[in-house]
Every structure is written in structure tokens, then in C-alpha cells.
Amino acid sequence: MRRGQVIAAFAGVALAAVAAGFYAYEWSVRHSPIPFARAGNPKPVPSLEMQDANGQRRKLDDFRGKVVLLNIWATWCAPCREEMPALDRLQAELGGPAFQVVALSVDQQGADIAQRFFREIGVKSLDFYIDPSARAAFRLDAPGLPVSLLLDRQGREVGRKLGAAQWDSREVVDELRRRITRPE
């Protein structure tokens, strides 16, 4: 074989391996019972600051010890608005000392607009959190909204979902329940 043929054969094999790996990754995300691209290893999450419904400063670190579904959203984001009722139902079903949905608004118009939206759609189980600076989306490398991160009890990212999801589907609830009861 000539050198050019060897290089071409090697490039073909490499391209095929990359394509197979991408296909396997996409298949695992599509066929996963939970709509997350899973992190290979738990990944540190930057410290985030937010305000609660009373205007008190909170940190993401305040939720350590729980499995957390951190959802970054805004009232101007149509998919965010669509998935919020499912997040509220998920919190109602699984929320407690071992799990919490942290729906973090990045509305720069302030808390009033986001709280009004919560009232309009009848949110009953979600606590209110806002980052009016919208830094959270940038610090988490969120290319769009909504973005949801699944955090383990140590506050590390173990899964990520860009876009809306049906968070209260039986498959998602069952998978989250397994993660909540899994010892770490």
C-alpha cells in the first residue's frame, strides 16, 4: 500500500469510529428513560446566587444533600412556560428532604413578572427563585433556554437537558425516584 492509501484508510476508519460513537450517544439519549445527556463523571457546578420569593439571598450550595433538578427558565421563553406545570407536578410528587426542583428564573425585568407567571399558571409546589442578573445561564454554559441540570447530593452535574421535557412522565419520575434512593 502506498502512503496515501494508508492515510485514506486510516481517515475512513477514524471517521467511521466517530460516527458510530455519535450514533451510540444519540441513541442512548433518545432511548433513555430520563431526557438527559448523562455526564461521564460527575462535573462540578459553579456557585450560583439567587433570590427567593422573599428577596433573601440564596446559593445553589444551600441544596447540597438533595438530588436537585435545576431548571433555568424565563417568562419570555415559550418552551419554559410550557414545561413549568410539569415541573410543578414533579415537585409535588417527589419533592422533600431528598429531592427538589429548583426553577430559577433569569428574567431581567425582576421578580414581579416571574411571580405573576407562577400565579397565572397556578404553581403550587415549586419554590420561587430568581437571578435577575441572568448570570446563572452564562455560568452554566447554557446555549439557550430552558436548560435543566440534574445535580447529585454533592451538587455535581450528572445530567443535562437543553429544551423542554415532560418532567412528570412516569418514566422520568421512576428514573428520578431510583436516583433519589440510590446510595452515593
Explain how this protein is built.
The chain is of the alpha+beta class. It is 40% helix and 22% strand. A hairpin with a 5-residue loop joins strand 7 (147-151) and strand 8 (157-162). The radius of gyration is 19 Å and the shape is globular.
Which keywords apply here?
single chain, 184 residues, eight-stranded mixed β-sheet, 5 helices, globular
In short, what is this structure?
The chain is an alpha+beta fold and 184 residues long. 40% of the residues lie in helices and 22% in strands.
Instruction: Output the strand order for the largest sheet.
Output: 1-8-7-4-5-6-2-3
Q: Give Rg in angstroms.
A: 19 Å
Pattern of helices and strands: HEEEEHEHEHEEH
Helix content: 25-40%
Approximately how much beta-strand content do the residues carry?
A: 15-25%
Number-wise, the strands total 8
- The DSSP helix count reads 5
Classify the secondary structure makeup into a structural class: alpha+beta
Instruction: Give the N-terminus to C-terminus distance in angstroms.
Output: 53 Å
Q: What is the makeup of the main sheet?
A: 8 strands, mixed
How do the strands and helices of this protein lay out in sequence?
Elements: H1 3-30, E1 37-43, E2 49-52, E3 57-59, E4 67-73, H2 78-94, E5 99-105, H3 111-121, E6 129-130, H4 135-139, E7 147-151, E8 157-162, H5 170-181
Parallel strand pairs: 4-5, 5-6
Antiparallel strand pairs: 1-8, 2-3, 2-6, 4-7, 7-8
